[in-house]
Amino acid sequence: MRDATLALSERERRAWREDGFFLRRAVFAPVEVETLRAAAERVRRAAVALAGEGAAYEVDGNRYVDAGPVTVQLEHRPGSPSLRVVEPFHHLDAAFEALVDDERIVAPMRELVGAERVALWTDKLNFKPPREGSGFQWHQDSPYWAHACRHLDQLPNVMLALDDADEENGCLRVVRGSHRSGLLPGRRDAGRLGPLFTDPRHVDLDAQIAAAMPAGSLFFFSPHTVHGSEPNRSDRPRRALVITYQPAGFDQFKAPGSREAAASEARSERVRAESSGRARIPAEMERS
What we know:
The chain is α+β, with helices and mostly antiparallel strands. It has a single domain (about 5-250, about 260-275), classed as Jelly Rolls, CATH 2.60.120. About 25% of the residues lie in helices and about 25% in strands. The protein is built from six helices and 13 strands. It has helices at about 10-20, 30-55, 95-100, 105-115, 140-145, 265-275; strands at about 20-25, 55-60, 60-65, 70-75, 85, 120-125, 135-140, 155-160, 170-175, 210, 220, 225-230, 240-245. Strands 1-11-8-13-6-5-4-3-2 form a nine-stranded antiparallel sheet. Strands 7-12-9-10 form a four-stranded antiparallel sheet, with no helix packed on it. β3 (about 60-65) and β4 form a beta hairpin. It is globular, with a radius of gyration of 18 Å. It starts with 9 loop residues before the first helix and ends in a 13-residue tail after the last helix. Mean pLDDT is about 90; it is low at about 265-288.
């Protein structure tokens, strides 16, 4: 039997409809977060190796390397070896491969996707190193995917914070209610990538909030929610991963084939067993 405590609360459902996001604080225990941080470092090393063999290019000052289905983004400063984003990344480490099936993520995703069986659309690992991690302009995720997908409304995201995130180290910022307008016009004054960034004239930026959260938290947000971030001005990293799900039966965005999330009762039992012996983590949504 599935754990009913992982299902969406009425408060979370309302926040999803009205705000386009909700937060579950500290869902993953500190020891689990440490394991995922170690996995992130292994992915970083693997991505550096891939970048050394891939095809490098720049667009509007953004530095990329394509290595098969993996795209590695480097920090903007010319010559910087620091990684910005790796997408997709889950297949580069067993810990992240298992995370795709974690019931604490998959259970709420079933309702957000609107399907009993869900699959992976894409996943990315954001590094945002201290004093160098760059910000990201206001954007929606849906315009990035519109050319490759006809079920844009069924691509919810979940961010898992690997470090405490706040305004000083460039936490995610979201615009409350912006998802209700669907795809918004892009910018025509910002180079080749401009159409992928949201034209600020069509967004109520007074409704923006800082999605500050402790490590181990899960932040669920709509593919239409306008979001961005400031640079990391602190001496602390702000690592986070984002996983996007879709109905089962569709191929992934960049990687080949379909990757359905496991839905076995055995996995649910394992999650409960691993959770026993430590304090229950409150799963109540918080409106910031």
